[in-house]
Amino acid sequence: MSISRRGFFASSAAAGSIALIAACGSSPGEGDSYSGPPRRGGVLRIGALGKPSAVTTNPYSLIGNDSDMLLLSLLLDPLTVPNVVKDAASNVGARLAASWEADPEQKAWTFTIAENATFHDGSPVTAADVVWSLKTLRSRPNGDWKVPVPLEAITAVDARRVRLVSDTPNSQLPLLLRLMTFVMKADSPLDITKATGSGPFVLESYSDGNARLRRHEKWYGGPAMLDGIEITRFESSQALATAVAAGQVDLASNVGALAARTSASRSDLTVIRRPNDLAVCLALRTSDGPFADPRVREAIRLGVDRPAMVKQVLSDYGTVGNDVLGVGDPAYDRNLPQRKRDVARAKQLLSDAKFDAAIAHRLYTKEEAIGEVDSARLIATQLSDIGLKIEVVVQDPTAFYDQSWVKAAAPMTTVSWATNDSLMFYGSKVLRSGTSANETAFNDAAFDAAYIKTLATPNGSAQKESLDAMQRIQYDRGGYVVWGTADGIDIASSRVKDAPTASGYGRVQLERTWMTP
């Protein structure tokens, strides 16, 4: 869940490499007149954010850096991925698993490996490799989040099929396996620089989060358009924006709205907006404390000026939210009435709840997601209009997660989520009463019942009733103020074509991206 601040070039060697390539490559705007069909060739220089202290080459560790997630996703294939098809009925796309099916109870799921899937050394990807990888991931701390079935329930059916069996019905298993279930050859070292991957690109060199990759010619999905990719880790979005503006990188990944504003007028750069990418929310504790009364939470929702938040915090690179997490889900209920600011009604609700407005309440926030601290300060100003006194407390992310997150002592916090295309992801991770990451201490029997019913129902129209119920309960009495969702912002050279536009980590699927001469 971490969106860290990251640096310029991680080492002098990496800086020298980038400078050399920049000197030898095309200048910004060169090749813009190309009008032919997509062409194979070229090396894409991509910059991504990553702090030195969080660099990892272990695909089964906590992956906090965008740069590391990008690298791992290009070298290794997970079973499923975010669906990058626009307006698709499902938010789950096939990857190493070409298909999957469940038994009538939605407990036993069988995944079939893509035909002709091979590792980079030419050997076939087998069910035994998948089982080893899933069991290795499941055995890691918090592995149950990523592989939510018992360890012994992961088995090979035959050479190309793997079966996962959950203790209870779970229609969402393919979704919960998205992206993080990286498959390595059985018994590999847990270090991608020493292991053999099966993804669309092969590792050529690596240094402290910076890497050079070449195309995997025998990738089962068809060879990538690019000859190769060079990844450079940046420690700050400002440094990354400066690099793409100077032509040192061809694509700045997830660089933020400020870069978009400064790049929008340049003919040699393209601003790529990925809608519904990031939710920065206000989380209010529901079980006890000053915000336990639903009337108080409703007053706070009505006290927030959502369009002003989107304009000032997101620079209009986002959309107004409606207090339900997962707005990018195809099943998101757009018939819920859009909440609007109503100061008079908010004051009345606080009065009805006999809320003590004389007490100053602390809002704990952190320098993590872009605009998160700004959002806390603006919310505090807006809520003063309904009589609330809010003191914003900015913490280091480590201190925030140690001292404030999901703690009774911090009943009002900001939270940020970069996975915003799944209602059931949030239902599973932060809303059902049994989860350890229940940020709002939400314990609602009706919500839990609707969640369990959704899990037990096959995906599709049959789920509509229970999914709608989950959203209505969250909308009516949940603990989140989802005031808006931010667009993901990438900045690319105009030579870069068909870069991903999907939200979240859909942006790492670069095998169909190409470049003009």
TrEMBL record:
One of its GO terms (biological process) is peptide transport. Keywords: Signal. The keyword GTP-binding does not apply. InterPro entries: Peptide/Ni-bd (IPR030678), SBP_5 (IPR039424), SBP_5_dom (IPR000914), TAT_signal (IPR006311). GO terms for cellular component: ATP-binding cassette (ABC) transporter complex; periplasmic space. GO terms for molecular function: peptide transmembrane transporter activity. Residues 1-22 form the signal peptide. Residues 94-429 form the Solute-binding protein family domain. It comes from the Bacteria. This is Peptide/nickel transport system substrate-binding protein. It comes from Nocardia alba.
